[in-house]
Amino acid sequence: MSTLEIRDLHVDVAQSDDAAQPIEILKGVNLTVSSGETHAIMGPNGSGKSTLSYAIAGHPKYRVTSGSITLDGEDVLEMSVDERARAGLFLAMQYPVEVPGVSMSNFLRTAATAVRGEAPKLRHWVKEAKEAMTELDIDPAFAERSVNEGFSGGEKKRHEILQLGLLAPKIAILDETDSGLDVDALRVVSEGVNRYKERQNGGILLITHYTRILRYITPEFVHVFAGGRIVESGGAELADELETNGYERFTKSAASA
Ligand code: ADP
Ligand code: MG
Ligand code: MG
Prior knowledge:
Pfam families: ABC_tran. 37% of the residues lie in helices and 29% in strands. The chain has 257 residues and is of the alpha/beta class. It has one domain (3-256): P-loop containing nucleotide triphosphate hydrolases (Rossmann fold, 3-Layer(aba) Sandwich), CATH 3.40.50.300. It binds adenosine-5'-diphosphate (ADP) and magnesium ion (MG) (2 copies). Residues 8, 10, 28 line the site of one magnesium ion.
Protein backbone atom coordinates (compact mmCIF):
# COMPACT_ATOMS: atom_id res chain seq x y z
CA MET A 1 0.00 0.00 0.00
CA SER A 2 1.47 3.34 -1.11
CA THR A 3 0.34 6.92 -0.79
CA LEU A 4 1.31 10.01 -2.71
CA GLU A 5 0.45 13.05 -0.67
CA ILE A 6 0.43 16.60 -1.99
CA ARG A 7 -0.05 19.38 0.53
CA ASP A 8 -0.68 23.06 -0.21
CA LEU A 9 1.56 22.92 -3.26
CA HIS A 10 2.56 26.23 -4.82
CA VAL A 11 4.57 26.19 -8.04
CA ASP A 12 6.18 28.93 -10.14
CA VAL A 13 7.21 28.56 -13.72
CA ALA A 14 10.40 30.21 -14.98
CA GLN A 15 9.86 32.60 -17.88
CA SER A 16 11.95 32.20 -21.00
CA ASP A 17 13.16 35.77 -20.41
CA ASP A 18 15.51 35.31 -17.43
CA ALA A 19 14.88 38.79 -16.11
CA ALA A 20 11.11 38.35 -15.98
CA GLN A 21 9.44 37.49 -12.69
CA PRO A 22 8.37 33.87 -12.42
CA ILE A 23 4.61 33.45 -12.41
CA GLU A 24 2.73 31.34 -9.90
CA ILE A 25 0.77 28.57 -11.64
CA LEU A 26 -0.20 26.22 -8.80
CA LYS A 27 -1.86 27.99 -5.91
CA GLY A 28 -2.24 25.49 -3.12
CA VAL A 29 -2.95 21.98 -4.42
CA ASN A 30 -4.06 19.31 -1.93
CA LEU A 31 -4.42 15.73 -3.12
CA THR A 32 -3.88 12.23 -1.77
CA VAL A 33 -3.59 9.23 -4.11
CA SER A 34 -3.24 5.71 -2.70
CA SER A 35 -2.70 2.27 -4.21
CA GLY A 36 -5.71 0.90 -6.03
CA GLU A 37 -7.34 4.31 -6.46
CA THR A 38 -7.94 6.18 -9.68
CA HIS A 39 -8.20 9.94 -9.39
CA ALA A 40 -9.23 11.88 -12.47
CA ILE A 41 -8.16 15.49 -12.64
CA MET A 42 -10.22 17.44 -15.11
CA GLY A 43 -10.08 21.07 -16.02
CA PRO A 44 -9.93 23.65 -18.76
CA ASN A 45 -6.85 24.36 -20.85
CA GLY A 46 -4.24 26.38 -19.03
CA SER A 47 -5.53 25.62 -15.54
CA GLY A 48 -2.21 24.07 -14.47
CA LYS A 49 -2.86 20.34 -14.82
CA SER A 50 0.40 19.64 -16.67
CA THR A 51 2.27 21.90 -14.28
CA LEU A 52 1.11 19.62 -11.47
CA SER A 53 2.44 16.54 -13.26
CA TYR A 54 5.75 18.24 -14.08
CA ALA A 55 6.16 19.37 -10.48
CA ILE A 56 5.59 15.81 -9.25
CA ALA A 57 8.10 14.51 -11.81
CA GLY A 58 10.72 17.11 -10.91
CA HIS A 59 10.93 19.05 -14.16
CA PRO A 60 13.56 21.79 -13.60
CA LYS A 61 11.43 24.59 -15.09
CA TYR A 62 8.79 24.22 -12.41
CA ARG A 63 9.84 25.51 -9.01
CA VAL A 64 8.02 24.51 -5.86
CA THR A 65 7.84 27.61 -3.69
CA SER A 66 5.90 26.08 -0.81
CA GLY A 67 4.01 23.00 0.23
CA SER A 68 5.06 19.36 0.10
CA ILE A 69 4.94 16.16 -1.92
CA THR A 70 5.62 12.87 -0.17
CA LEU A 71 5.51 9.22 -1.24
CA ASP A 72 4.96 6.93 1.72
CA GLY A 73 6.24 9.69 3.95
CA GLU A 74 9.45 10.24 1.95
CA ASP A 75 10.08 13.76 0.70
CA VAL A 76 9.73 13.59 -3.08
CA LEU A 77 10.92 17.18 -3.54
CA GLU A 78 14.33 16.18 -2.15
CA MET A 79 14.69 13.46 -4.79
CA SER A 80 16.29 13.75 -8.23
CA VAL A 81 14.18 12.81 -11.24
CA ASP A 82 15.79 9.33 -11.31
CA GLU A 83 15.22 8.83 -7.61
CA ARG A 84 11.56 9.65 -8.07
CA ALA A 85 11.28 6.94 -10.71
CA ARG A 86 13.10 4.44 -8.48
CA ALA A 87 10.85 5.37 -5.58
CA GLY A 88 7.91 4.24 -7.70
CA LEU A 89 6.56 7.33 -9.46
CA PHE A 90 5.77 7.19 -13.15
CA LEU A 91 5.00 10.10 -15.38
CA ALA A 92 3.61 9.70 -18.86
CA MET A 93 4.41 12.99 -20.52
CA GLN A 94 1.81 14.87 -22.45
CA TYR A 95 4.50 15.34 -25.11
CA PRO A 96 6.73 12.27 -24.91
CA VAL A 97 10.35 12.84 -25.88
CA GLU A 98 12.12 11.30 -28.82
CA VAL A 99 15.39 9.49 -28.19
CA PRO A 100 17.07 8.98 -31.57
CA GLY A 101 19.53 6.08 -31.78
CA VAL A 102 18.15 4.26 -28.73
CA SER A 103 15.93 1.33 -29.59
CA MET A 104 12.74 0.85 -27.68
CA SER A 105 13.83 -2.54 -26.36
CA ASN A 106 17.10 -1.07 -25.00
CA PHE A 107 15.34 1.93 -23.56
CA LEU A 108 12.79 -0.24 -21.77
CA ARG A 109 15.36 -2.68 -20.41
CA THR A 110 17.52 0.19 -19.14
CA ALA A 111 14.52 1.79 -17.49
CA ALA A 112 13.45 -1.52 -15.95
CA THR A 113 17.00 -2.07 -14.68
CA ALA A 114 17.06 1.36 -13.05
CA VAL A 115 13.68 0.90 -11.40
CA ARG A 116 14.16 -2.72 -10.31
CA GLY A 117 17.73 -2.24 -9.12
CA GLU A 118 19.06 -5.08 -11.30
CA ALA A 119 19.01 -5.98 -14.97
CA PRO A 120 16.19 -8.33 -15.86
CA LYS A 121 17.57 -11.65 -17.20
CA LEU A 122 17.69 -11.25 -20.95
CA ARG A 123 15.66 -14.35 -21.77
CA HIS A 124 12.90 -13.47 -19.30
CA TRP A 125 12.97 -9.89 -20.41
CA VAL A 126 12.46 -10.70 -24.09
CA LYS A 127 9.44 -12.84 -23.19
CA GLU A 128 8.04 -10.28 -20.74
CA ALA A 129 8.40 -7.38 -23.19
CA LYS A 130 6.91 -9.43 -26.02
CA GLU A 131 3.85 -10.36 -23.98
CA ALA A 132 3.35 -6.78 -22.86
CA MET A 133 3.58 -5.59 -26.47
CA THR A 134 1.09 -8.19 -27.65
CA GLU A 135 -1.41 -7.06 -25.03
CA LEU A 136 -1.17 -3.52 -26.38
CA ASP A 137 -1.39 -4.54 -30.06
CA ILE A 138 2.13 -3.22 -30.64
CA ASP A 139 3.91 -4.69 -33.66
CA PRO A 140 7.06 -6.58 -32.46
CA ALA A 141 9.08 -4.72 -35.11
CA PHE A 142 8.60 -1.68 -32.94
CA ALA A 143 11.06 -2.98 -30.38
CA GLU A 144 13.91 -2.14 -32.76
CA ARG A 145 12.80 1.38 -33.61
CA SER A 146 14.25 4.46 -31.92
CA VAL A 147 12.23 5.67 -28.98
CA ASN A 148 9.29 7.74 -30.15
CA GLU A 149 11.08 8.73 -33.38
CA GLY A 150 8.47 9.10 -36.06
CA PHE A 151 5.87 7.45 -33.83
CA SER A 152 2.32 8.55 -34.43
CA GLY A 153 0.44 10.08 -31.52
CA GLY A 154 -1.32 6.79 -30.86
CA GLU A 155 1.94 4.81 -31.01
CA LYS A 156 3.56 7.11 -28.45
CA LYS A 157 0.66 6.61 -26.09
CA ARG A 158 0.80 2.84 -26.48
CA HIS A 159 4.52 3.02 -25.77
CA GLU A 160 3.82 4.95 -22.56
CA ILE A 161 1.36 2.31 -21.41
CA LEU A 162 3.87 -0.39 -22.33
CA GLN A 163 6.34 1.31 -19.99
CA LEU A 164 3.66 1.52 -17.32
CA GLY A 165 3.09 -2.24 -17.47
CA LEU A 166 6.79 -3.15 -17.49
CA LEU A 167 7.99 -0.67 -14.89
CA ALA A 168 5.12 -1.37 -12.49
CA PRO A 169 5.33 1.88 -10.52
CA LYS A 170 3.50 2.51 -7.25
CA ILE A 171 1.76 5.63 -8.51
CA ALA A 172 1.29 6.57 -12.17
CA ILE A 173 0.61 10.07 -13.43
CA LEU A 174 -0.96 10.01 -16.87
CA ASP A 175 -1.18 13.44 -18.45
CA GLU A 176 -3.68 13.53 -21.31
CA THR A 177 -2.98 9.95 -22.26
CA ASP A 178 -6.23 10.12 -24.19
CA SER A 179 -5.43 13.11 -26.41
CA GLY A 180 -5.16 12.40 -30.10
CA LEU A 181 -6.29 8.77 -29.86
CA ASP A 182 -8.84 7.20 -32.13
CA VAL A 183 -11.47 5.00 -30.52
CA ASP A 184 -9.55 1.74 -30.99
CA ALA A 185 -6.32 3.15 -29.55
CA LEU A 186 -8.24 4.70 -26.69
CA ARG A 187 -9.70 1.31 -25.81
CA VAL A 188 -6.32 -0.47 -26.00
CA VAL A 189 -4.63 2.22 -23.91
CA SER A 190 -7.44 2.22 -21.35
CA GLU A 191 -7.30 -1.57 -21.04
CA GLY A 192 -3.56 -1.26 -20.35
CA VAL A 193 -4.24 1.24 -17.58
CA ASN A 194 -6.94 -1.01 -16.10
CA ARG A 195 -4.57 -4.01 -16.18
CA TYR A 196 -1.95 -1.96 -14.36
CA LYS A 197 -4.48 -1.18 -11.65
CA GLU A 198 -5.60 -4.80 -11.30
CA ARG A 199 -2.17 -6.45 -11.44
CA GLN A 200 -0.07 -3.95 -9.50
CA ASN A 201 -2.79 -2.45 -7.36
CA GLY A 202 -1.37 0.80 -8.72
CA GLY A 203 -2.55 4.27 -7.83
CA ILE A 204 -3.47 6.41 -10.83
CA LEU A 205 -3.62 10.14 -11.32
CA LEU A 206 -5.36 10.54 -14.65
CA ILE A 207 -5.21 14.07 -16.01
CA THR A 208 -7.57 14.77 -18.82
CA HIS A 209 -9.42 17.49 -20.60
CA TYR A 210 -12.26 15.30 -21.88
CA THR A 211 -14.63 12.89 -20.17
CA ARG A 212 -14.31 10.42 -23.08
CA ILE A 213 -11.59 8.25 -21.49
CA LEU A 214 -13.71 7.90 -18.36
CA ARG A 215 -16.05 5.61 -20.29
CA TYR A 216 -13.23 3.06 -20.25
CA ILE A 217 -11.47 3.87 -16.99
CA THR A 218 -13.73 4.39 -14.00
CA PRO A 219 -12.29 6.77 -11.44
CA GLU A 220 -13.27 6.54 -7.78
CA PHE A 221 -12.50 10.22 -7.43
CA VAL A 222 -12.93 13.15 -9.81
CA HIS A 223 -11.36 16.53 -9.11
CA VAL A 224 -12.03 19.74 -10.96
CA PHE A 225 -8.93 21.82 -11.51
CA ALA A 226 -9.28 25.55 -12.19
CA GLY A 227 -7.01 28.52 -11.63
CA GLY A 228 -4.14 26.42 -10.26
CA ARG A 229 -5.98 24.44 -7.63
CA ILE A 230 -8.60 21.79 -7.04
CA VAL A 231 -11.92 23.59 -6.73
CA GLU A 232 -14.24 20.62 -6.35
CA SER A 233 -13.97 16.89 -5.68
CA GLY A 234 -16.51 14.12 -6.02
CA GLY A 235 -17.11 10.66 -7.41
CA ALA A 236 -17.54 9.48 -10.99
CA GLU A 237 -20.86 11.35 -11.18
CA LEU A 238 -18.97 14.65 -11.14
CA ALA A 239 -17.48 13.73 -14.53
CA ASP A 240 -20.99 13.27 -15.91
CA GLU A 241 -21.93 16.70 -14.68
CA LEU A 242 -18.85 18.17 -16.39
CA GLU A 243 -19.76 16.40 -19.59
CA THR A 244 -23.16 18.09 -19.52
CA ASN A 245 -22.32 21.53 -18.14
CA GLY A 246 -18.65 22.09 -18.91
CA TYR A 247 -16.29 24.02 -16.66
CA GLU A 248 -17.94 27.41 -16.71
CA ARG A 249 -19.30 27.31 -13.18
CA PHE A 250 -15.79 26.52 -11.88
CA THR A 251 -13.80 28.94 -14.02
CA LYS A 252 -16.05 31.80 -12.89
CA SER A 253 -15.51 31.08 -9.21
CA ALA A 254 -11.76 30.54 -9.77
CA ALA A 255 -11.46 33.93 -11.44
CA SER A 256 -13.21 35.72 -8.61
CA ALA A 257 -11.23 33.90 -5.87
P1 ADP B 1 -3.01 22.64 -18.54
O1 ADP B 1 -2.17 21.40 -18.57
O2 ADP B 1 -4.09 22.61 -17.52
O3 ADP B 1 -3.54 23.01 -19.88
P2 ADP B 1 -0.49 23.98 -17.98
O4 ADP B 1 -0.02 23.46 -16.68
O5 ADP B 1 0.14 23.44 -19.21
O6 ADP B 1 -2.07 23.85 -18.06
O7 ADP B 1 -0.32 25.56 -18.00
C1 ADP B 1 -0.82 26.38 -16.98
C2 ADP B 1 -0.39 27.82 -17.22
O8 ADP B 1 1.01 27.91 -17.01
C3 ADP B 1 -0.65 28.32 -18.62
O9 ADP B 1 -1.04 29.66 -18.54
C4 ADP B 1 0.70 28.18 -19.30
O10 ADP B 1 0.86 29.12 -20.31
C5 ADP B 1 1.64 28.43 -18.15
N1 ADP B 1 2.90 27.69 -18.34
C6 ADP B 1 3.07 26.36 -18.18
N2 ADP B 1 4.34 26.00 -18.46
C7 ADP B 1 4.98 27.12 -18.82
C8 ADP B 1 6.31 27.43 -19.24
N3 ADP B 1 7.25 26.46 -19.33
N4 ADP B 1 6.60 28.70 -19.52
C9 ADP B 1 5.67 29.68 -19.41
N5 ADP B 1 4.40 29.47 -19.03
C10 ADP B 1 4.05 28.22 -18.74
MG1 MG C 1 -1.68 28.15 -0.03
MG1 MG D 1 -1.75 19.98 -20.00
